[in-house]
Amino acid sequence: MEDGDDPRPLVSVVVPAFNEEDVLPLLAARLRPVLDATGHDYEVVLVDDGSTDQSAAVVVGLRRGWPQLRLVSLRVNAGHQAALSAGLRRARGDYVVTLDADLQDPPEAIGEMLQAALAGHLDVVYGIRSDRSSDSRFKRGTAAIFYRVIARLTGGAGPSQAGDYRLMSRATVEAVNSLPESGRVLRFVVPALGYPSTSVSYRREARAAGQTKYGLWRMVRLSLDSITAVSMAPLRLATLTGLLGGLLAVVVGISTLVSHWTGHTLPGWTSTVGIVSAFSALQLVCLGIIGEYLGRAYTFLQDWPTYSVAYDSAESDPHPGP
Ligand code: UDP
Ligand code: MG
Fold it and tell me: Which atom of ligand 1 lies closest to the CA of 19?
């Protein structure tokens, strides 16, 4: 199949990539045999997420010998989730697999995922990371806490240790596409939709080349997005702490009055400062939590696009090649 010939290949593989020039040739070398071996029509939607290195040029080069490779270029870096969204909207396949560019998730599992979906008439096949020993201890530790908190908040919806390596049917992709995009974390949205699913497990490997694009700050943002997306619990916690704090304040107030009346007035500087700063901190935390949700509501209201597509080889270029 060449670009534009068949609007509906059986499989689309969506790959978000941000500054992955070193990885892309390795990815192509491993992904292509896997997809060719399925014997089905396919396309690979490589979403260049505003890379500032030679990623786009590398893809253009790879496309010369691999017409099923499609390049979608975003104007500016939109982030992993938004790049995935861009790919999901543009993918044409009956089944769509999302895969990171860095070969941490082995492309070889795609065959198994497709088999499982076709054989069981299933809509979603999750890739489960059975072994993450290649990730840093810090990443594994924080990820474990993250998944535990989310499981708690959602009542355990969705498999734990499932990242963004998964296969989805056209129906699932359409359902995902119909949801608002900002602050959306796909790995929690998809299980919440409740389509019939199964999972395959794989060993998470080390990055094939290049560096992780998820620094600490991005991980914090992903966690906040995920938690505010799936749960109102932090808001309730804020209210609850406020109430408890109020009760405590009443107790402290009464005891102050009592000591005043009984003439046991102490200098009390330490306790005053202590109480004032404790309550200020508490108020700031609660304000912050409210701010998170307000920000989320505001972003929804604004409804700005989360990404901007500059180029799609399937649209602007009916003939494969540069
Ligand atoms: N990525 C992206 N946009 C970004 C950051 C990352 O498209 O702003 C891509 C990146 O190229 C990779 C995938 O998202 O294909 C996962 O990123 P990374 O491997 O850096 O994250 P990690 O595996 O360390 O969590
Ligand atoms: Mg990675």
Answer: 11
